Amino acid sequence: MSSVIDEVPRPSEQSGFGFFESSTTRSLIGGLSVAAAWSMVAAFTAFWPDRPESDWAYTGGFAIACGALALALAVAALAGVRFVAFQRLQRLSPWLFALAMFLAAWEAVTAKLGLLPLPFFPPPQAIVEVAIDDWGRLAEGIFASARLLATGYLLGAAVGFVTGVAIGWSRRAGYWIHPVLRFIGPLPATAWLPLAFFVFPSSFSASIFLIALATGFPVTVLTWSGIAGVKSAYYDIARTLGATQRFLVLKVAIPAAMPHVFVGLFMGLGNSFAVLVVAEMLGVKAGLGWYLQWAQGWAAYANMYAALLLMAFLCSGLITLLFSLRDRLLSWQKGLVRW
Amino acid sequence: MVAAIASDHAVRGSTLTLREVSHRFDLEGQPLPVLDRISLQVGRGEFVALLGPSGCGKSTLLRLVAGLDTPTAGSLLTEGREIEAPDPSRVVVFQDPTLYPWRTVWSNVALGLEARGLLRTHRGRIEDALRLVGLTGFANAYPHQLSGGMAQRAALARALVNDPKLLILDEPLGQLDSLTRIAMQAELVSLWQRSSFTALLVTHDVEEALLLAGRVIVLSDRPARIKAEVVNSQPYPRHRGDPHFVELRREVFEQLGLDEAW
């Protein structure tokens, strides 16, 4: 019975495309078509002239960059036949292909056809231009933002963590801190902005306070709920084995609460991004948030898109960093959410 | 404490005395009596089983012996001293293994030594305890990777590494499948014989009580009172089919008011 089933060819083999049978061949074709798509973007940018009376300085440069990428992808696709390391690129193929299509469409409706109004919708090469001509100011902005965010976030996370542990562990700490937390916590940190800017000696320190506040609230609440939710059996075990109060807090309550703490850290990180941008726009006069607003003020929309793009990379990078830290620390957990 | 660990083999087990121990819970303002004047004397190195129906208050009694709760009335003494707080010389193995999921098997077993600051000097004991329960290859596994039986073995190793004078077993085999259970019963006996601690086992399984213990204390429904005491002086290993064993089992069932079923 089973041998009969085995003899019937599977549909994919029946279809006659013998060439597609091996997965190596299929991935080679996939890789090469991605490379072809990018060379099409390059050719299209280079040989279809820009709209008259436009003066995009980096049309050629953008075309060359796309061509170089196409070449690199072709080489990688060919290398994938022999080297397993390159085969991982195969997973990205559909995305790389879609990205090429998107850039081609963007290029067509802006620089080539002029369907979208300027200066609000600049072509891709205008953003390349910003990256090349204004990288100094952008780097300064990244540095200023990172410094502010790191200081505020770490401060807020540390204070929030300690406060959360204190409320979760000590009844007296809970009695005093809990009402304050309930009253002030839900208030958006940005509501403190006007007050913070005249109470604090500098807008920098005011912004640190606001970012720390925005981070601290979720970290406190989640740490607290994590500590409060620790199974009492965990404490019984440790107590019968001779654990001190200190041991119960540091080696039982805190490790057991860590999954909750990380949820708080993620929420805090999201909040801190929002407050960072607002603080930079309204008071700090430095950083990517300020650059965004400055660019908008000068109608330099390409600069604005460039800064937005950078910000997206940075925020996403930080979230990724936090996720990998969590995966490392909480590797004992089953079924972690993958970022 | 270091001296205690190195003490003589023969006298390692401790005595346990319960004098008129009563306990009640407060359930929404209503007092709920669970233990009613329990008096019991356990000798050095003895294996005593407390047998009773589910929910009769057996586990409450063990929590009192462990020092996790204080009785409403009466007193509990070990080695002539009142039990006031938990102490690593009296270790509990609970029905649920309750391993810390964030620690490997090795670090779970190390818990007691770490809590008392003995990890540095007595590190080797962890490996010994793991060997004793047959988990040598699993030192670096996390609890979620273990089967129920293995997790309970790890919990046993976590208790034994502290070299307890009194091992309190709260239905430790209750959640295991019957095959693992039979194997672990034999292992418990041989562990007890080798380490010569005093053992107090709570169970609702008549056969288990008679297989393991030298003395079976039969408890009544809640509030628990001591109904009877059955002594089993048969040598180990004991066999379920042995005529004397069958006779003892019948006797215990009779005490539990279940003789009709047999």
TrEMBL record, chain B:
PROSITE patterns in the cross-refs: ABC_TRANSPORTER_1, ABC_TRANSPORTER_2
Alphabetized SMART domains for the sequence: AAA
InterPro entries in UniProt: AAA+_ATPase, ABC_transporter-like_ATP-bd, ABC_transporter-like_CS, ABC_transporter_ATP-bind, P-loop_NTPase
Single GO molecular function: ATP binding
Alphabetically ordered keywords of this record: ATP-binding, Cell membrane, Membrane, Nucleotide-binding, Translocase, Transport
Function according to Swiss-Prot or TrEMBL: Involved in beta-(1-->2)glucan export. Transmembrane domains (TMD) form a pore in the inner membrane and the ATP-binding domain (NBD) is responsible for energy generation.
Name under which the protein is recorded: ABC transporter ATP-binding protein
Provenance organism: Bradyrhizobium niftali
UniProt lineage: Bacteria, Pseudomonadati, Pseudomonadota, Alphaproteobacteria, Hyphomicrobiales
